[in-house]
Each structure stands twice: as C-alpha cells, then as structure tokens.
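pls design
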C-alpha cells in the first residue's frame, strides 16, 4: 500500500521572490527549512520521506496564496508556482505530486490555469483557502470553477490562510493562529454542507486539513451531514490523538488521509505523524479515553 502525504508544503523560490517583489509578505515561508525547491532541499525532503516511510508527498504552496494588486498579477504568480512545482515533481517521478494554486478571485483566469495544471502538468488538483478577501471560496461565484474541478475529478485541499479572524493571525507563531486555523477549518466544512457541494459536485475529492477543525464537536445534525458527505480529512492534528480518534470514529478510516504539515513537521516528528496516521484504524475501535 502506497503511503501518500496529502498535506505537505513547498514554496518555490521563484514564486516567493515574485510575491515578495510585488509587496506580499513572505517572511514566514522563507524562514522554514527545508521548504523551498532547491536541489539540496528536495534531496533532504526525499531522505526524510524515506526515513519516515512516506512513498509520495502531494506538494502545495499553502498558506501562501497570491494576493497581489492589480489582480492580474496573481495569474502570473500562480503560473510561476505551478510550473516550479511541476518541475520538482519531475525531479523524482513517483515520489512527488502537486496541488496547484489559482489566481482567485478571477474565475476566468483560474479556469485557464486549472486546465493548464491538470491537463498539461498533471496536477492532482488544487489547494484553496476557506475564504479569500473576506469571501468564502465556496460561494456561488466559484460554481464554474467547481464544475471544472468536478469534471476533472480533482482533489481540493482546504488549508487555512491564517487571516480568518484578524490581522494577528498572520503570525503563525501566536496562539491566535492555532485558534483561527481551527475556525477556518470548521467554517469551510459548514460552508460545504450549506452549499450542498457533495450533491452538486460529487466527483471532487474534498480534503479538509487538520481533521476538520472542530466540526465533529458541533451538533448532531451537522455531524450527520459531515458523515453523509464526500468530505475527507487529513490526519495532522498537532499530535492530538483524541481529535484524530474522533474524526475516524465518525467518518471511518477510509476518509482519513495522511497529512504531516511538512516541513513544519519533520525529522523524528515526521515518523511520529506517520505512525499516528497508521494507528487510526485501531483508534477508531477504541472507546474514548
């Protein structure tokens, strides 16, 4: 059985340089090693994957979504990101795959980039923030994009943007990032259910990062809606075994995917994350502590 990590970050140098050169703050991504696409960092990544038993990483550039003005520059930034990520995949066939970024909120430009990254570059899908510029990425404005994603049977990883409840969330080192990320992850689940996305776009593979935030702590009707939806969840819960157990008991082992948050989780902690994921099946059968 192939062990695939669906929550792993890569911030290509050309992409970061472009965003930084046009005024978007990229200090945090520059400070995370090994997070770039240099040959040395890719070799280090592969070695850590080998040491941890990970066969493939699905790379994404979250939470560094392009937010440039004028909006047309976002298309140029997105193209830089996906071309660089596709090149990283080509350096290690079978070991890497990737999820593209799109120049939202420009739907027409995003559809063009989606065609390019799926049909020409072989991406698995895209990564999206739960909201962008204060508006949900599950709003009806994006229906043409979701129709295209559905047609392509694409994966969509919803990853926090770090700006959901206030400017302080831009600093991932503060406790407000952790709380805000949970809020974003929970909200996107509610938005997915409210928009009947599983019925309208059943061929999309939606993945909510970090086991869905607090969605399994909500009311029974909401939890039942999650259970009967097409939503999947990754296993990254910052080591919180009870959160992972709760998600697994509700939706079953088959809808929990490995997610590590690499390179934030690396070295010995990476192997620990894989072991927690592999224990999900037994955790689901255990009574709560």
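designed seq:
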């Amino acid at each position: 059985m192939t062990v695939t990590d669906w929550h792993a970050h890569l911030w290509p140098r050309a992409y970061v340089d472009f965003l930084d050169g046009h005024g978007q703050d990229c200090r945090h991504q520059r400070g995370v090693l090994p997070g770039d696409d240099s040959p040395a960092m890719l070799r280090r990544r592969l070695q850590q994957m080998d040491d941890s038993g990970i066969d493939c990483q699905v790379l994404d550039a979250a939470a560094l979504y392009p937010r440039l003005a004028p909006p047309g520059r976002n298309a140029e930034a997105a193209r830089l990101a996906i071309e660089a990520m596709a090149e990283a995949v080509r350096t290690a066939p079978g070991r890497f795959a990737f999820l593209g970024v799109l120049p939202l909120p420009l739907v027409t430009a995003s559809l063009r980039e989606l065609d390019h990254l799926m049909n020409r570059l072989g991406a698995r899908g895209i990564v999206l923030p739960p909201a962008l510029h204060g508006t949900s990425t599950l709003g009806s404005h994006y229906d043409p994009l979701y129709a295209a994603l559905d047609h392509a049977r694409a994966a969509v990883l919803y990853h926090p943007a770090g700006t959901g409840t206030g400017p302080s969330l831009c600093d991932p080192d503060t406790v407000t990032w952790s709380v805000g990320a949970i809020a974003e992850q929970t909200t996107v689940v509610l938005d997915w259910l409210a928009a009947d996305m599983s019925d309208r776009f059943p061929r999309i593979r939606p993945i909510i990062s970090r086991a869905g935030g607090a969605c399994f702590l909500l009311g029974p009707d909401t939890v039942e809606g999650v259970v009967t939806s097409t939503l999947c969840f990754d296993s990254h819960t910052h080591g919180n075994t009870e959160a992972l157990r709760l998600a697994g008991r509700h939706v079953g082992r088959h809808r929990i995917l490995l997610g590590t948050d690499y390179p934030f989780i690396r070295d010995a902690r990476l192997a620990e994350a894989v072991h927690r994921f592999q224990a999900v099946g037994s955790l689901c059968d255990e009574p709560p502590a």
